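Re: weekly structure request thread

Next one in the queue (108 aa):
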Amino acid sequence: MRRNSGLTVCVIYLIALSALLSRPTYAVVPDSRTVPTRGIAVLASSIGNDFTPESLADFVQQGKFSPVVIDWAWITYDWDRTNFKAVNRFLELMAAGNVPVAAMSHRR
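Done, posted below.
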């Protein structure tokens, strides 16, 4: 009796599984109203040293980059080389253009 009930449960399980697997699946249709985005990371010590905040903001705008990540790479190395006045100006320009900005770092 116990063996029969075990077999019955297995048969019911297999029938349910085959019914699930035989159902048609549909690919997710992308929402055509959403705009694809691509972000960019900028080395913090480059802002104001290699690139002016204004030229970098112009590059972000022309490339339609969003979000922007300010990267302190190895923070112990880049922190003292960062022009914080220029970084703050760049952040103001990004805020004026409604571009989201994040910061990241890792230790060396």
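The mean pLDDT is 80. Residues 35-106 form one domain.
Next request, please.
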